[in-house]
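Ticket #4471: structure output looks truncated?

Reporter: J.K.
Steps to reproduce: submitted the chain below (441 residues) through the standard prediction queue, then opened the result file.
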Amino acid sequence: MSPYPLPARRILSTWWPLAASWLLMSAELPMVSAVVARLAQPEINLAAYGGVVYPLALIVESPIIMLLAASTALSKDWASYRKLRRFMMVAGAALTALHLLVALTPLYYVVVRGLIGAPAEIVEPARIGLIIMTPWTWAIAYRRFNQGVMIRFGHSRAVGTGTFVRLTAEVLVLAGAYLSGRVPGIVVATSGIIAGVLAEAVYAGFRVRVVIDAQVKTSEAIRPGLTFPVFVHFYIPLVMTSLLSLLAQPIGSSAISRMPDALSSLAVWPVVTGLIFLLRSFGVAYNEVVVALLDQPGAVASLRRFALWMAGLTTFALLVITATPLSTFWFVRVSALPPALATLAQRGLWVGFLLPALSVLQSWFQGAILHSRRTAGLSEAVVVYLAVSVATLLAGVLWGRAGGLYIGLAALLASTLAQTAWLWLRSRPAIRAAEEVVSRA
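Returned output as attached by the reporter:
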């Protein structure tokens, strides 16, 4: 072990801009839900967005979600950057075409009515929202790729600034639509989301130019260079990881639609999970920190210690919210849920209180695996996640005596716990290897 451990302030300075970015981004869903809840037909529009539009948009974009991690790990020189950028543009175009195919053809009804089994009253509003969300995938691909480059070369603060730009654009659109009082809630939600995503993508493209000219183009070429087979070997497990993970979203919506209190559960789902994700975001941001810093002297012990502290603090914070009147304030005052839905949300929050800590641990283990470039363990962990989630949801449907929200959250907790355990197991060789490399240095 190195006698000079990685300073906590170095970890903190790398992590906090990313955490601020994820925190601001996680405020997006509660903010949208709070606005839609104050418009006409809140239950239908919340259910349409949280139960159909958002899960389907995530599934379509799943192959490019891991571009942030890939770009952070691989954009080390000009040649690698150009190859990754070419892949990003082609993938963004192809997935946007797939999004349009689902939104504009009869395939939409096959998916939403046949596979998801969504309540009839949310099918058409959700289709309008999905059409508005068309630019989502390409904009996300472009933004995440450029953010990875900035993180790789020490400009993680720019990521937080970009998220601030995104939220500002969303707030302006949401406020304008809300004040008009004549725009349907699903249109308000998706228009605000798209305005923010496009604004952030434009900012990322503008901000990364300086980094490319001053650092990427002047970096020493890596040997051996990044080849397409090497990239595919690295990235395909990441694609499978995000795809399988996000499949749980429409599967969850489909299962909840077949349980008691389906419409209420679908309406409350984005509000409850949005609040939980506010605290999970601190841990999600840790993934890129581990990837960027694990090769530093004394990094393993310092990164592990930081992760454990963060896991404890985020769990404590969610427990305080859940067990005090803060939950009532959030669901009634901030989210504007009707009393019956607010009570349902408060009870459901207890089921997911361990999720923030699990997100931190996942990022620690996953970051170590990514750093080693042996990414197959990530796909394996998501298979475990999906299997446990499907089994729990199926048991809930067959039992048929518990509300969909409770079963959905129980499935999320159980599957995340199983996934974290598998990541821990598969990350052990990578962490040991990192310790050995540093000790020989």
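Triage note (M.O.): checked the attachment and the full token line is present. The mean pLDDT is 87.
Status: closed, working as intended.
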